[in-house]
Structure formats: structure tokens, C-alpha cells
Amino acid sequence: MSAAVVREGRMRLVGRLPAERRAAPRRPGVAPAWWLLPAAWAVLAGCTTLGPDYQRPAVSLPPAYGEAAAAPDAATAPLAADWWTLFGDRTLDALVAKALAANADIAQAVARLEQADALVREASGATAPTLNAGAAGSRARTSARSRNNPGGTSIEDNNFAVSLSTSFELDFWGRLARANEAARAQLLASQAARDTVRLTVAGAVAQAWFALRSLDEQVATQRQTLRSREEGARVIGQRLAGGAASRLDAEQAEVQRADAALLLRELQRQRQIVQSQIALLVGEPGSVLPEPTPGAQALPRLPPIPPAGLPSALLERRPDIRRAEELLVAANAQIGIARAAMYPTLSLTGSLGFESTELAKLIEAPARFWSLGFGLALPLFDGGRNAARVDAAGARQREAVAAYQQAVSSAFKEVADALAGLRAARESEPDVRARGDSAARALELAKARFDAGYSGSLERLEAERTAAGAALEVVRNRERQLAATVDLMKALGGGWTGLPR
Prior knowledge:
Outer membrane efflux proteins (OEP); two-stranded antiparallel ribbon; 501 residues
């Protein structure tokens, strides 16, 4: 008449209880002690936490980039999320917005961030009890010829049951707490990785845009040079026909014209490549960016240069350094998880429900049942596997320490290199422009001397070559300044908003 009652795992009871137990009244002084479960959980959980607590490793860095004193509020300056707007270029702003919304690398980083967020919620849920509800119903007929039925009479019977069961692990050694700590650190690392990708994509779009506009200015300048050399070759051709110039002069003029035409086509080819790169970054393959109108300045303005003495504490804003540190936090927490596996595990279980052969009498006091239990697991011998896991976790933590220190040192070098490149390009600007202006004036003088017959074509051709190269160098040096500015913004984690200028 009775079935076995299974009380393993989460204690989901669905069997039939003996009739004597269903009908027997509860003994005096024996009360269902459900209140013991949350009380035991509150008192015993989290008694201790194994493993080392995280401490940021020391990194030896100079206090500032440069000799000037650092600004007192620089270390807490807010991150300029839209640093590219400092250039005042609306087209650049639109391109970066498209890239941040449609770039495939950013989409992958966001998906990894969502995965890490789900793991954090899973790890947090592991520290709370689980509660399951169950319901079962059955009708059975016993065999009249079964040896378990000596009466020789078939019996048909019903059985119904509803139950609640719970189970949770007491986190004596902080294994679950360390797992939660590691998962949260991984989440922050994924967030920093997404920010790194966003910063990289925005920087790539900005530098590609500046390269495109620089090529636009170079193409416009080279077209003027080609027209000038075509005119020069035509004049020398006329002089050759009149006997006032030699065949050597004519051939050299043609060489200069052909060189200008070849360089123009090369610049146009480079522009097409950069345009395709921008189209890929913004997720619009095949899109075309028109050249600026004639006479308009293609390259945007230069933002203010940062002050001397930028504090090295600004490196803390860099997302790649934040990611390296959060990975170190996670690796540090893994040591505690590995150590906790060497200690006993205690779990509490319980169930409460009703069971009856009659559905109408299911929710009655005699049909009630409950149970409380605990389980203890103590590793005695595992061949040294747990100890090896602890050693492996410690080695991974030391690897993460080295990776963090390397990330900080590399970031400092990147900032220093970007500052040096930007200052060099800025300091070269007056000389580059002076050279361009002098070369243009020298060309005018050479043309006047050539037209007056005071000099030959070689002097004019040389002046044209020098002036053309100087004009292109003015554009390229401005592009170098813009590119170095973007490098510095990326190296600082996104501009230097809040610093004195």
C-alpha cells in the first residue's frame, strides 16, 4: 500500500506515505522547523573568505609627463567621451556616430559584455537558496497475481502530492563570494574592453578622415602644380620652336610634367583606399565621400594642445588599463575559489508539502509532510589535484600582475610618444610654412627671370619642384599634427577635458 519516499538532492517527494503516517497526529513538541533554514543560512554563511584580498600592484612611473607641475585636479578630470568634437568638424562627428552604432567590432564587444553580465547574475544567484515547487498525480492498479499481493485481489488507488523544496550551500570558506567577485571583475573587464574598442574605432575613423582630407588638399595642390608644369612645358615648347630653348630644356620640362601627373594619380589612388577604409569602419561599404569645394579648407582646426606636466595618474582612465586591472582582480579571486575546494562543503536541504490518495483531502493537516537535512562533503584524497589547482591559480595571478604592470608601462610610453610627436609637429609648423612661403616666392622670381631671359629653364624647373614639394609638406605636417592629437587622446583614454590650457 505504500511507495518509497526519495529524499536525495533537492528532496522532491512524490511517493506515497504509509496510511499510518498520514493518519497519525503530530507528536507534541515536534514542530516543523522551517525557520531553522534561513536562520542557519544567516548565521553560518560567509564565516570566512579564503584567498588573498586584492591589492593594486605598485608600478614605478614618473609623476608627470614633462617638467612642469601637474594640475591638482587633473587626475580626476572627467573622460571626454566625445573628444572628436573638439575638432569642430560636423562630418567627422557624423562618421564617428555611424561607426559607433554600426561597427562590427563594437557589436562583438557589446555581446561579450552582455555575456559577462549574465555570468554575474548567475554567480550572484548561487549565493541564495533555490526554491522549487512540485506537483504530481497518479492512478495505479496492482496485479492480483503479484507475489507482493498475497490477498489475490487487484487494487486501484490514486495518489496526489504538492510540495516545496529548497537547497543551498553554506559558504563557509567564501567560495561563492570569491566566484561572485571574479564574475563582477570579468564584467568590468568586458566593459573596459568595449570602451577600448569604441576608443580604437573612433580614433581610426578620425585618423582616416584626416588622411582623406589631407589627400584632398594634396590633390588640389597637385592639380595646380600639374597645370603650372603643363603651362611651362607649353612655353618651353614654343621657345624651342623659335630657337630660344634647347631640346634638353623641352625634355626636362616634359619629365617634370609627367612626374606631376603620376603623383596626382597616386594621390587619387590613395584617396580611394582611405575612402574605402572609412566606409568599412562606418558599416557602409561602397559609400562615397565627396571632395571639398574648391577654395574650402579641407583639414579641420587643431584643438588646444595639452599643458606641460600632464600627470601620469591620467593613465587610470585608459580602458585597457582598467581591463588589465579587473582581469587581475578576477585572477586574484580565483585563488580563493581554488583554496576553498580543499575544505568541507556543507549543504542544507528541506521540503514541505501535502500528499493524499484523495484529491479532496489533499490540503489537510493529516496529509502534510516535511523534512530537513544536511550534507557534508570533505575531500580526503585527490592525488594532489586541488593543490595543483591552487598553484595554477597563483601562477595565473602572477601572470595578470605582470600583464597589468606591462599595460601601465606601455601606456606611459604611448602617451610620451604621442606628446613628443605632437610637440614636434607643432614646433615644425612655423618652419614648414616659412619654407613653403619662401619656395612660392622663389618660384615667382624664377618665372620672372625666365620670362625676362635672365635664366634658363633649369632654374625655373627646380624652383617649381621645390615649391610643389614644400606646398605638399605644409598639408602633410598639418595632418601629422591632427594624427598625433588623436594618438594622444587615445593614449590618455579620451582627451584631457578639465585640464588647464
